[in-house]
Every structure is written in C-alpha cells, then in structure tokens.
Amino acid sequence: MIKLSPRLKTVLSFVKGSCLADIGTDHGYLVIAACMEGIIEKAIACDISHGPLSKAEENIKRYDLGQQIVTRLGFGLQPILPDEADCVVIAGMGGMRIIDILKESPDVTKKIKRLIVQPQHDIPAVRQALHSMGFGIIDEAMVQECERFYNIVAAEPQENILPYTEVEYLLGKCLLNRRDKILLAYTERELQRIEKYKSQAVSADFIFKEEALRSILFLMSKPEK
C-alpha cells in the first residue's frame, strides 16, 4: 500500500465518485491510493509539467494500475472533458490559482459533482469563490504537518447557498461548528504572529483578523455545555 502524508490522507478521505481527476498530480500518489483502496473505479492524473507526469506514469506502472489511471499533460481542467470526472481534486496550489483554474474551464467546473481543494494560501477567497460558483461547502478539515497548517475543503453543487459571515469565510464554518482542535492550535499560532508584527501592520484587514482570532480563541477555549 502506498504511503500518504497526513495532508493527502485527509484529501483522500473526502474523495467520492467513480472517476477522480487529480489536477497537479505530481507523483500520482493520490490517484494510486484511491484506486488501490477501491474508493474510485478510474482516475485521470493531470499535470502541467512533463517531469512530474513522467514520475506519475512510472508509479502507476509500478503498481500495475495502467488500466485504471490515465495521465494527461495540460493546465488545470483543460485536459478534462465535461462529465468525464465526477470528482476533482486541486491540491497544493495557491488559492488564486485554484480559482483561476475553475473559472477558466466553466464547462467542466459546472459538471463536477464533488470538488476537493487544498489551497496553500488565500483560503477565505477560495471559500467565497466556491459559493459564488454554486458550490456549497459540505465539509472541511485542517491538518498540521510540522509547523504548517493545511485546509482541505470538500464542496458540491448546491442551490440557494447561504453566505458565510466574514469570520466563517476567514476560518471555515465547518471547523468552527465542531470546535476543531487543529483550528484552535492555528488560531493560537496566528495570534502569536500578529503580536510579533503588530507594530508593522495596521490595515483594517489586519485588525479584523486579530479581533476575529481573539473572539474565536475565547469561544473555543470555553468548555462545552
């Protein structure tokens, strides 16, 4: 069995469907694990670079999964046909790039039944963009690997999506609702960073983030009734 990092294990836990498209597949570990564990029937491993795609092809061959997984070279969702993949993963990229990928292939995006994204940054913007594109956020997880925190968001097409509050877009409604322990650790770490750089940044966004983090830290630290 292929070994995944905690981040990719969490991404995999959200995968659902018959055909998975992994955008920015790198070495192909995610699609290989999804097929080996019987989570999906087939997969499309996409990457913009020849090097990672060649590595993915080697790994797919090593695990004898050539009948289930195909590789395609190209940017974002461009190598995918509408309705070809019902589950799409876009992980390990900047948030604005993820948004661009979804917007640049609207015919494919609107046919996705389960979308899983793991932005490296600009996470509030991604949450807002998902809502604006008609995706409701059905679950979210936060993973810590050493000093880094990762958000994994699972979304599906929905109608009449209720907008989040500013704090929910900032930190994630699902995480807040279940008083996620890793979110608490992230909140504490971010407040430490804010204190360190407070004298250098006084923008309205900076002040809002500090106030939101302090409020959430207070609420999450209180014992549940």
SSE blueprint and pairings:
Layout lengths: L5 H8 L5 E5 L5 H8 L5 E6 L2 H13 L6 E5 L13 E7 L1 H10 L1 H4 L4 E6 L3 H10 L2 E11 L2 E10 L8 H6 L1 H5 L3 H17 L6 H18 L4
Parallel strand pairs: 1-2, 1-4, 2-3, 4-5
Antiparallel strand pairs: 5-7, 6-7
Characterise this structure.
The chain is an alpha/beta fold and 225 residues long. Helix content is 44%, strand content 22%. The termini are far apart. The model has no long low-confidence stretch (mean pLDDT 92).
Judging from the principal axes of the Cα atoms, what is the shape?
globular
CATH fold name of the largest domain, please? Answer: Rossmann fold
The proportion of residues in beta strands is: 15-25%
Radius of gyration: 19 Å
- Average pLDDT, to the nearest integer? 92
Distance between the termini: 42 Å
What is the CATH first-level class name of the largest domain?
Answer: Alpha Beta
Number of domains: 2
Helical run tally:
10
- Spatial strand order of the main sheet: 3-2-1-4-5-7-6
H-E string: HEHEHEEHHEHEEHHHH
Task: Report the helical percentage.
Answer: 40-55%
Low-pLDDT sequence parts: none
